[in-house]
């Protein structure tokens, strides 16, 4: 085995940095039995003649597709709480490992945060919680106090490591007083509060900006067709379109905000939801694109939305891993379906849910997810890296923001995706989706390498 990236205290970092500069093709490998966990292999693969009779992946940088914004996680309030409970030195080392892209660090480049509480916070809250029967149309009592306790300090530490990281904000619910049922769970947004809720977003973005945190984009509602979570909201596509065109879009324009507005943020079984909104030209003018999860439906549905509205972007923003986890199955599915599948279907991001939980998968709200395995399990200063950590590492470290997806064919049992980085490096992520070791060729500009992957393994191949 070569250099192990991603483990605190790993050795031979300088050797790993020197190896990266050598000519030829570098390989980082993860195997289902965990004998290799995003490990840099010592052997540099040299371009030569193809081996006859083997499958070949041909990489063509002349055919380009979407630009990539980044790969990462949701930094829930619960994740931020657990990070704050670490020692300052241990937290600093872990955040560097996660968010720096040099040396033995994995280079997370995109984060999703909740606007108010998600179901993986220790308590339910909004930024405008009032006594039952009260309302605050001018949002005079708006406060980011909950976020200032844990989330904002962690974000500031992350931004000190990577000032360019993109942050997406998603609400799980408006304040209860804006809803038909006056409750954090379920209900719908009352049309009479559309303008107030639009200003709620504006105040959030400006409040975070005052803390030195730029919110690159927002989704209007996490899982708008799942009102059974806590917090949650039911928001049908016609309601979301009306909210955008009547209130949110004009409010952003009046406030001179360039934060992107992203719609839907739910499962791939309902591509009709974002298409309905984008078919409304009044609403469409304010929309950057659509976001997806994959708890239902097929990843190919993203391409249906792209084909209906090719001028709008697509994002993959959430997928959980169920505790206690099955490393081989979870890692393989997420690489194949999300890192490869989502990006091959036009996604500019792939985000795992969520960054961290404790050994009991806490914290979570009453009625929140009780079995969501974090990319990290944090037990005080003890850090356990789970499958989503390595899923994101295989893409985030090398496919930096501004990279573009390029063409590659898919031989049987070798799903893959290729990218060209801003520094003109080529990155090819390949999975051996079979039960036996597989040898294959990688072809690029008339040159070829012959390589192999163990059964079920994933390799990230990098060359200049």
Q: Major sheet: order of its strands?
A: 1-3-2-21-18-17-16-4-19-20
Oligomeric state, counting identical vs distinct chains:
single chain
Q: What structural class is derived from the secondary structure elements?
A: alpha/beta
Low-confidence stretches: 1-22
Keywords: Glycosidase, Hydrolase, Signal
GO molecular function, one term: glucosylceramidase activity
Domain Glycosyl hydrolase family 30 beta sandwich: 402-461
Pfam families: Glyco_hydro_30 (PF02055), Glyco_hydro_30C (PF17189)
Please characterize this protein's 3D structure.
This protein is α/β, with parallel strands linked by helices. The protein folds into two domains: 3-64 and 406-463, Golgi alpha-mannosidase II (Immunoglobulin-like, Sandwich); 69-401, Alpha-Beta Barrel (TIM Barrel). It is 27% helix and 24% strand. The protein contains twelve helices and 21 strands. The chain has a ten-stranded mixed β-sheet with strand order 1-3-2-21-18-17-16-4-19-20, with helices on one face. The longest helix has 18 residues, at 237-254. The chain is globular and about 75 Å long. The two termini are 23 Å apart.
């Amino acid at each position: 085995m070569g250099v192990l990236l991603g483990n605190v205290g790993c050795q031979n970092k300088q050797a790993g940095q020197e190896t990266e500069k050598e000519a030829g093709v570098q390989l980082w490998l993860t195997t289902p039995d965990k004998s290799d966990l995003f490990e840099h292999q010592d052997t540099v693969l040299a371009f030569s003649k193809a081996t006859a009779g083997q499958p070949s992946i041909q990489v063509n940088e002349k055919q380009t597709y979407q630009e990539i914004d980044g790969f990462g996680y949701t930094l829930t309030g619960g994740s931020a709480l657990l990070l704050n409970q670490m020692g300052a030195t241990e937290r600093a080392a872990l955040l560097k490992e996660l968010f720096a892209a040099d040396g033995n660090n994995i280079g997370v480049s995109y984060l999703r945060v909740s606007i108010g509480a998600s179901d993986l916070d220790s308590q339910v809250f909004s930024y405008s919680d009032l006594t039952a029967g009260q309302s605050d149309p001018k949002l005079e009592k708006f406060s980011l106090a909950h976020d200032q306790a844990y989330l904002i300090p962690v974000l500031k530490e992350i931004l000190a490591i990577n000032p360019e990281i993109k942050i997406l904000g998603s609400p799980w619910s408006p304040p209860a007083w804006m809803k038909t049922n006056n409750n954090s769970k379920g209900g719908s947004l009352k049309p009479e509060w559309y303008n107030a809720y639009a200003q709620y977003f504006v105040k959030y973005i400006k409040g975070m900006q005052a803390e030195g945190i730029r919110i690159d984009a927002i989704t209007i509602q996490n899982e708008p067709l799942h009102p059974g979570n806590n917090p949650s909201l039911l928001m049908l596509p016609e309601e979301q379109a009306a909210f955008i065109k009547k209130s949110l879009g004009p409010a952003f324009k009046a406030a001179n905000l360039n934060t992107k507005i992203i719609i839907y943020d739910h499962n791939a079984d309902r591509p009709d939801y974002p298409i309905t909104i984008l078919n409304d030209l009044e609403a469409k003018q304010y929309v950057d694109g659509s976001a997806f999860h994959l708890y239902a439906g097929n990843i190919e549905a993203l391409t249906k939305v792209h084909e209906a509205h090719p001028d709008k972007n697509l994002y993959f923003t959430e997928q959980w891993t169920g505790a206690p986890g099955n490393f081989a199955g979870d890692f393989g599915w997420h690489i194949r379906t999300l890192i490869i599948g989502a990006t091959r279907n036009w996604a500019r991001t792939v985000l795992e849910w969520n960054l961290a939980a404790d050994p009991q998968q806490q914290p979570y709200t009453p009625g929140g997810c009780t079995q969501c395995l974090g990319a990290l399990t944090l037990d005080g200063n003890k850090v356990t890296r789970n499958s989503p950590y390595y899923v994101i590492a295989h893409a985030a470290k090398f496919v930096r923001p501004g990279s573009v997806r390029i063409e590659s064919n898919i031989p049987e049992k070798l799903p893959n995706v290729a990218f060209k980085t801003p520094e003109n490096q080529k990155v090819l992520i390949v999975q051996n989706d079979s039960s036996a070791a597989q040898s294959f060729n990688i072809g690029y500009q008339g040159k070829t390498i012959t390589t192999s992957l163990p059964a079920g393994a994933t390799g990230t191949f990098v060359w200049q």
